[in-house]
């Protein structure tokens, strides 16, 4: 495939199939406009937008990595796990996505009940219809609160009602990292810890490594220069793959897609690691 000039990539992006703003094809279009050579669509707990993104990538000459972001609850810590180069038609991954789709809807119903008790009723049918088959989350409810005039901004909705520990907050069920890593690997993907500087200690990362973690997201907009340097060294020391991405959702004044310097070589190394894994699986199957 002919690549765009610039040789930069963004391997952590969201569409409106989870809590992003743009449809998958629009994400790819904006990546092309930013002269990105490759991107990964990593919607929360769903791969439903990957097919559309792949088709648009073929049309525009942008390599699209099928991905997913899975929220996990570890032993005393939370981690967001990126699955990169997953088979987006894998039966196990689709079963998980269907299960979590209903879990998110059940959680949304409980949040709406709490908001109604506080005098802020929202139309559940309208909310569900707007999200469609996407991955319903608190950001969608926040937007509805703004539209109904209950709050003045998306940020205020979280600060007053939807944020962790706030009156309408409802915890969501999460996989253990062991299960999520297994799920990603059984779908042929690479398991990458997202934005470790936001959530994880080095001890947490070592625990994840013992569970089969493949790599860490070194480049992320929330990482300080010192953290970025630390995670480069951590990955080198522990023979981990590295990744990087903007985590762009297309929301707010600061649109990060295309603004980070994530070298093309990161994508090449991940792609080659994935190819080695696939070749190893094929070789194993051929000997059985």
Describe the structure.
Helices cover 47% and strands 15% of the residues. Helix 2 links the parallel strand 2 and strand 3. It starts with 7 loop residues before the first strand and ends with a helix. The chain folds into two domains: 204 residues, Metal-dependent hydrolases (TIM Barrel, Alpha-Beta Barrel), CATH 3.20.20; 66 residues, DNA polymerase, domain 1 (Orthogonal Bundle), CATH 1.10.150. The N terminus and C terminus are likely disordered. The protein is α/β, with parallel strands linked by helices and 288 residues long. The chain has a seven-stranded mixed sheet. The protein is globular and about 55 Å long. The chain contains eleven helices and seven strands.
């Amino acid at each position: 495939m002919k690549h765009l000039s610039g040789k930069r990539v963004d391997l952590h992006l969201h569409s409106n199939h989870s809590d992003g703003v743009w449809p998958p094809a629009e994400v790819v279009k904006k990546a092309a406009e930013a002269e990105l050579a490759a991107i990964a669509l990593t919607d929360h707990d769903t791969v439903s937008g990957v097919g559309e993104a792949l088709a648009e990538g073929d049309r525009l000459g942008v390599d699209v990595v099928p991905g997913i972001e899975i929220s996990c609850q570890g032993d005393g810590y939370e981690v967001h796990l990126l699955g990169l180069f997953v088979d987006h038609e894998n039966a196990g991954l689709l079963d998980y996505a269907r299960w979590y789709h209903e879990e998110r809807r059940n959680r949304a119903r409980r949040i709406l009940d709490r908001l109604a008790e506080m005098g802020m009723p929202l139309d559940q049918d309208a909310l569900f219809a707007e999200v469609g088959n996407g991955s319903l989350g608190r950001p969608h409810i926040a937007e509805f609160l703004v539209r109904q005039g209950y709050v003045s901004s998306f940020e205020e909705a979280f600060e007053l009602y939807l944020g962790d520990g706030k009156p309408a907050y409802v915890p969501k069920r999460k996989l253990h990292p062991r299960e999520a890593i297994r799920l990603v690997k059984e779908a042929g993907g690479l398991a990458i810890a997202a934005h470790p500087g936001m959530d994880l200690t080095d001890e947490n990362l070592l625990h994840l490594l013992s569970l089969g973690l493949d790599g860490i997201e070194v480049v992320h907009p929330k990482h300080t220069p010192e953290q970025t340097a630390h995670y480069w060294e951590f990955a080198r020391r522990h023979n981990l793959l590295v990744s990087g991405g903007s985590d762009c959702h297309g929301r707010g004044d600061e649109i990060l897609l295309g603004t980070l310097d994530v070298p093309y070589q990161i994508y090449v190394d991940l792609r080659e690691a994935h190819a080695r894994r696939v070749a190893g699986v094929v070789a194993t199957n051929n000997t059985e």
